[in-house]
């Protein structure tokens, strides 16, 4: 994208710098990208209808069947997973949810109170953890794993040395973002409410998928022949009429029967799933952007989060649906290619790599485009062009790739997951009476890891979205921060001058 693509409006103001305001879109409609909002609502209604009409009846029938079967075989084996074991898993899961929420809250407090230093702490924590794991591997006698962790540790040290000059810059951006988030704590209830919506959507979709697949599946070609996974020498021996090598397999086996209509159905169901998940994700991102931009320009304003969320759910909802749909289509295609690659399809492997790259590019574009959607309520396409026009005009196109903060947030999420996993593992040794079922020392720690990472990702994603908004606001109008929060402005300008002096001189001369 060239600067000619978007005509940025440079507004001269008193002082040593210029404010760049984005051009207004050609459309004057208040509601942006409306067709995509209508299509998304239709998608949600369709999935709910399929769940009610096809999924739930099938699930109820299966539950009744398994219940009667379970009563008949209740005394078959005492080593099976019992209702008492299930009660233990549920109790531990509930406890882990509470613990992970507490740990996530404490980590968030650390981020907000020590924003300038948290990046350095997280980088050093990565180094230390690598050598701790190496020592544990040596103690366990797994020398190869120990060597691997040692190599990772040295690479982490080299990375720490390489980015040392940029840590202060990233810390200053994070500090300003943290200040905005601390002033508007109402963002976090919105974030967790959206997470609950996301979980509910996945649950509804999964039930609908069961019903759709049962309806879309047609009779197998060779009924009575060998089932999937059985060794074969010819396709005629297989129930699916397909005898081939699976990925990494050395022998021919019968492949599962997947009719053409099921493949098409699976693709559209995947698009539906990913679309819903991404809409919720970008709703939060857009809400945070609107909130932080208001804090930046107007100071400690009230009801900023409510206004930003209302705009995201109404006038900007179509734009969010549009950007989310593009990502969802690529994710669905990537999932299909991944499944084909697992079956030994070489072309699918290449396709998966290309789709993964395209998805990464589009998600990167969305991260910045939705900041302008949240700030100005622009249509999606116009927002993307405008924000990249801003970066090119300011000479910041390379700097936006400097993502030390994202790596730090990822490390903190993993740290919370590891803490919860270790607590769950410790419980299996403390309460052996209730954790004697097979796989308890694996199932419970994995649950702890999932809860820890999943719960922490929500508040840290708020911080990450706030950082992106701070970057855009500083590129557009640093003077606004000097009026509303002068101390933060001075620290941020100082950090930018140290890390990127050439870029700063170009749009913020001494």
From TrEMBL:
Q: Which coarse location class applies to the principal site listed for this UniProt protein? A: membrane
Q: How does it sit in the membrane?
A: Multi-pass membrane protein
Compartments annotated for it: namely: Cell membrane; Membrane
Database matches in InterPro entries: Choline_transptr-like
Q: Which domain of life is it from?
A: Eukaryota
Its cellular-component GO annotations read: plasma membrane
Residues that span the membrane, as ranges: 36-59, 86-107, 119-138, 144-163, 184-213, 257-275, 282-299, 311-333, 368-391, 403-430, 442-475
Question: Matching Pfam families, A to Z?
Answer: Choline_transpo
Q: Name one GO molecular function term.
A: transmembrane transporter activity
Keywords attached to this Swiss-Prot or TrEMBL record, sorted alphabetically, are: Membrane, Transmembrane, Transmembrane helix
Decide whether keyword tRNA-binding is in the record: no
Similarity comment: family membership? Belongs to the CTL (choline transporter-like) family.
Briefly state the protein's biological role. Answer: Choline transporter.
Official protein name in the record? Choline transporter-like protein
């Amino acid at each position: 994208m060239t600067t000619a693509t978007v005509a940025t409006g440079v507004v001269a103001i008193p002082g040593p710098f210029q404010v760049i305001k984005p051009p207004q879109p050609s459309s004057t409609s208040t509601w942006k990208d409306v067709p995509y909002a209508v299509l998304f609502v239709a998608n949600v209604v369709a999935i709910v209808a399929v769940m009610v009409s096809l999924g739930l009846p099938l699930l109820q029938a299966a539950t009744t069947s398994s219940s009667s079967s379970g009563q008949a075989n209740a005394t078959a084996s005492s080593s099976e997973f019992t209702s008492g074991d299930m009660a233990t898993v549920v109790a531990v899961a509930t406890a882990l949810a509470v613990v992970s929420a507490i740990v996530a809250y404490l980590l968030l407090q650390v981020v907000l109170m020590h924003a300038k230093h948290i990046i350095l702490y997280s980088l050093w924590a990565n180094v230390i953890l690598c050598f701790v794991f190496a020592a544990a591997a040596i103690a366990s006698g797994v020398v190869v794993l120990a060597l691997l962790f040692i190599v990772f540790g040295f690479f982490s040290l080299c990375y720490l040395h390489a980015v040392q000059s940029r840590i202060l810059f990233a810390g200053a951006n994070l500090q300003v973002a943290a200040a905005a988030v601390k002033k508007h704590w109402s963002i976090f209830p919105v974030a967790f409410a959206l997470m609950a919506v996301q979980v509910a959507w996945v649950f509804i979709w999964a039930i609908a998928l069961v019903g759709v697949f049962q309806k879309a599946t047609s009779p197998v070609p060779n009924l009575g022949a060998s089932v999937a996974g059985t060794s074969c020498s010819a396709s005629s021996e297989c129930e699916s009429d397909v005898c081939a090598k699976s990925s990494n397999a050395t022998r021919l086996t019968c492949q599962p029967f997947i009719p053409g209509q099921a493949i098409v159905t699976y693709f559209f169901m995947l698009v539906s799933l990913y679309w819903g998940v991404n809409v919720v994700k970008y709703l939060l991102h857009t809400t945070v952007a609107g909130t932080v931009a208001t804090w930046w320009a107007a100071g400690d304003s009230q009801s900023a989060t409510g206004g930003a969320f209302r705009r995201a759910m109404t006038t900007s909802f179509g734009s969010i649906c549009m950007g989310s749909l593009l990502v969802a289509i690529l994710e669905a295609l990537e999932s299909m290619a991944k499944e084909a690659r697992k079956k030994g399809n070489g072309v699918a492997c290449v396709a998966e790599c290309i789709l993964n790259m395209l998805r990464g590019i589009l998600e990167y574009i969305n991260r910045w485009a939705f900041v302008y959607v949240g700030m100005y309520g622009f249509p999606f396409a116009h927002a993307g062009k405008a924000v990249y026009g801003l970066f090119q005009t300011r000479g910041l196109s390379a700097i936006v790739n400097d993502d030390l903060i994202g790596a730090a947030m990822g490390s903190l999420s993993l740290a919370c997951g590891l803490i919860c996993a270790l607590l769950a593992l410790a419980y299996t040794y403390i309460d052996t009476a209730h954790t004697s079922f097979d796989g308890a020392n694996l199932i419970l720690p994995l649950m702890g890891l999932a809860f820890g990472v999943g719960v922490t990702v929500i508040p840290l994603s708020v911080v990450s979205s706030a950082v992106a908004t701070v970057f855009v606001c500083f590129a557009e109008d640093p003077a606004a921060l000097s009026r509303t929060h002068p101390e933060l402005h001075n620290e941020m300008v100082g950090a930018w001058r140290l890390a990127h002096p050439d870029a700063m001189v170009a749009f913020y001369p001494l």
